[in-house]
Amino acid sequence: MKTFRPLILLAALAFPTLALAQAQSTDDRQAYRQQWPLQLAQPQAGAYRLTLDDGVYRTAVSPRLADVQVFNAQGQALPSALLAADQPLAQAPQWQTLSWFPLPPMAGTSGDDLQLLTERNTDGSVRRVEARLGRGGAAGQPAGWLIDASALKTGVQALRLDWQTQSPLQARVRVEMSNDLRDWLRIADDVPLVDLQHEGRRLQQRRIEIARQAKYFRILPIGADALPALSTVQAELVPTAQAIAWRWQSLTGTAGKPGEFEYQLDGRFPIAQADIATADNSVVQWTLLSRDDADQPWQVRAGPWVAYQLQDAADRRQSQTQPLTRSTRDRYWKLVAGQAQSMPAPTLKLGYQPEALVFLSQGEPPFTVAAGSLRAERQEAPVATVIAQLREQHGAQWQPAQATVQGAPQVLAGDAAVAPQRDWKQWLLWALLVIGVLIVGGFAVSLLRQPNRDGGS
Fold first, then answer.
1. Rounded CA separation 313/174 (Å)
2. How far apart are CA 328 and CA 159, in angstroms?
3. CA 321 to CA 149: how far, in whole Å?
């Protein structure tokens, strides 16, 4: 009976460890500091796009934002990927209505030459078009469309055509672009336009991929395909970084050496621009530096540049914001003046554009987004591949639905999730091993001390 005591003791010591490990594996959210409930714009969209807010950035500790993860109601991590603000999936598409003009056929001729007589407004946009296309066709049937995109300041990602017709449509068109209505460049061939109905279901293809920038586009039918009468034409704009709203963090500095001021950022924001604000008129040449750890050397992020602020009775003028050499999530920042002089600490304004976390729905809602962990790390999923397949099923105009943070944060592991911890499992295993060796050694010594009962007497 005594020989089983060491084994019983080892099992008793190991059981709490296994139980704790099993309890932690049931809900991965307990490795995070806190979470926020999500509200879905569409309950069963399949894929969602969550624009990160200040609370998530302030809670995260990972320099790569790897400790931000979406979970379902069962505590399972959902497939997700972090996208920069200027990536198409990271933002909702922007549409703008464009002017368009039907191109009438010119009877008795052939070919595709387009003769245009245009009247323009003062801004260069087209007011009126008289067009003749060298193509035979039925009376009243458009021989193509001329689309005026001269008012756009950015490129066109796609065109969406809307028409009002109950007749079945299956046509093929080609797309050309021009900046002067004289020289045309063909950019797309054999593009299908489809509008079919059967047994209460409708199949439509109205979107034409462009991904170009030009003042004018024309859409021409291929062969004798008939085109419907358009009602509207909309352009999906190419996303640009400047079109995304900038958010700013204003930091109060502490003075160091003359002309040097240090600041601390309380979050993992993707800082890409900087600005200076002072209480009075000023003009100073600044250099901006940053680092992520107090023991690391400073790295130049912007400048030197001249920042000024001039205020009079009628107006206020100030220098433009300064772009950084690259986006960074550093915590510590430093301003160094071109001339060492005593001055009040200026306000450092750091600008960023919020990123998006695109995730796929699995399991049961409600969904939550958790942030802040030194132990957990998000595994980037091939979300773009899945999005491409979903677009094949739902149409080229399909986009991930919007998800937004709703309500106050809910505490999970709290500050323990972001506190440095020792590898307690390894220490416990070593302790069990040492205890086991001591027990076995003690048991062996006790056996040696027993009298030899088998010896002669």
1. 59
2. 36
3. 30
CA distances to 241, 270, 346, 383, 405 from 253, in Å: 29, 20, 7, 41, 31
Burial label, 362 (beta-carbon count in 10 A; 0-12, 13-18, 19+): middle
pLDDT, one tens digit per residue, over 230-257 is 889 999 887 665 567 899 999 999 998 8
Pair type for strands 401-405 and 47-51: parallel
Sign, CA torsion 438/440/445/446: positive
Domains annotated on the chain, with CATH: 32-88+355-417 (no CATH), 95-238 (2.60.120), 247-352 (2.60.120)
pLDDT greater than 60 at residue 15 = no
Q: Is the pLDDT of residue 293 over 60?
A: yes
Q: What angle do CA 357, 358, 363 make, to 5 degrees?
A: 110
Residue 421 has pLDDT above 80, yes or no: no
Q: What is the pLDDT of residue 26?
A: 55
pTM of the model: 0.61
Does the pLDDT at position 203 exceed 60? yes
Contact 346, 253 (CB under 8 A): yes
Q: Cβ distance 338 to 284 under 8 Å?
A: yes
Q: Helix or strand or coil: residue 126?
A: strand
pLDDT digits (tens, 9 = 90+) for 48-96: 999 999 999 999 999 999 999 999 999 999 999 998 887 766 666 678 8
Of 40, 32, 58, the residue nearest 410 (C-alpha): 32
DSSP state of 12: H
User: Judging by beta carbons within 10 Å of its beta carbon (0-12, 13-18, 19+), is residue 187 exposed, middle or buried?
Assistant: middle
State how far the alpha carbon of 283 is from the alpha carbons of 199, 323, 346, in Å.
72, 18, 11
Neighbours of 389 (CB within 10 A): 9
- The Cα 284–Cα 305 span in angstroms is 8
C-alpha–C-alpha distance, residues 103 and 111, integer Å: 14
* Between 213 and 14, the higher pLDDT residue: 213
Q: Give the 3-state secondary structure of residue 417.
A: helix
- Burial of 85: CB neighbours in 10 Å, binned 0-12, 13-18, 19+: buried
Average pLDDT over residues 254-262: 92
Cα gap 75→36, rounded to integer Å: 13
DSSP 419-455: S----HHHHHHHHHHHHHHHHHHHHHHHHHHS--TTS
At 7 the pLDDT is 39
Contact yes or no for 106/135 (Cβ under 8 A) = yes
